[in-house]
Design a protein that fits this description.
By secondary structure, this protein is of the alpha/beta class. The chain has 16 helices and 27 strands. It has two domains: 178 residues, Glutaconate Coenzyme A-transferase (3-Layer(aba) Sandwich), CATH 3.40.1080.10; 240 residues, Acetyl-CoA hydrolase/transferase C-terminal domain (Glutaconate Coenzyme A-transferase), CATH 3.40.1080.20. Helix 8 packs across helix 9, helix 9 runs parallel beside helix 10 and helix 15 packs antiparallel against helix 16.
Amino acid sequence: MKITDEYKSKCVTATEAAKAVRSGDWVEFAWGASSADLIGDAIANRMEELTDVNFRGGVVLNPLKFIENDPEGKHFTWNSMHMGGYERKLAQKGMAYYTPIKYSEVPRYMRENCRTDVVAIQTAPMDDYGYFNFGVSVSHYAASIDRARTVIVEVNEDMPKAHGGYDHTVHISRVNFIVEGGKRGLPILPSAAPSDIDKKIAGYVLSEIPDCACIQLGIGGMPNALGKMIAESDLKDLGIHTEMLVDGFVDMVERGRVTGMHKNLDRGRMAYSFAAGTQKLYDFMKDNPSVAAYPVDYTNHPFIASKIDRLMSINSAVEIDLAGQVCSESAGPYIISGAGGQLDFVEAAYNSKEGKSFICLPSTFKDKSGEVRSRIRAMLTPGAVVTDTRAGVQFVVTEYGKVNLKGMSSWQRAEALISIAHPDFRDELIAEAKELRIWRKK
């Protein structure tokens, strides 16, 4: 059968495609800016026919109609591997649940541990050879498809076709149903405006970055501030190897900071696993041979990423204790985001030749009552999740400075971290360190 004939035979409406979902199924549905909303809405319309359908995804940017229409979870459950702001609100209402991950391992979870009955994802239009490009979200889609009973693609004509390394497409022979979605645009993730504190923290990090470094940025105001500062700096011949491609990288390219010519892997190319940002980013990605889309077990695997010299990993955190344990995913016991690939890159950057890993956080925050509290604590908030172990953390940066914890004893760590805490909390932290017997008398 010709590819064009096969395409026509598999084209159905979203309503028809949604019939492939059965009670008890697990559905791989959305990651980042890629969400098969037409199919999702059609599944929502079948709510009374279905029970115990579990959806899986993460970093969701569009509303999930099937979850919002079923607030008591009698029919559908959302399982998130990384919660963005929208999913966080669902979780606070008991309408979403977190799946702990180490992001580099997720494709293996899909192949060995997770049940996947249906994959319903958004793709670019099919090319002349029968391939649908995953575009802005490669992540673990290929691994999910390996296990699925049914594969449904929702074609978005606005999805940029991304050049890749491997596992960034699915062939029509593996697809069961095609839903044509026309030109639907992509959800916009605005760059968070950096605060003055973000800029100060970014300045400390910028001073540690040499020419020819390879950059990984996390999400948030501080990494965004650093991206802008790198773009405006005199750095040259930088490379990009990251899990998430964001607007800041486009700024660096446009200002001539990025060539990638000193990368040990993917020379001259920016490797990523998923992307989310403004239309500027999506336009930049479209059919761009300098961008390489890979599954996350390539971009994030510490053994792979650490082969790149001068890998600089910059990520944010919620809090850190005086031992150096970092929490980046919860407020006490309540999940607010996820581990993502932070630990992957903390390990990879430190094991990279001349590489450096940075955990960045403002020294304080305001709680719900408006009271100012320190993010550097004697001990983590009860119930807080340890994202990065104390032995793994290298640089910690606040607006009051930076410290390198590698090789430090317990009292040295306490002393170093208190030195970059907000001055208003230093005496209190010293007193707590004494109680914990990690403050050396001088």
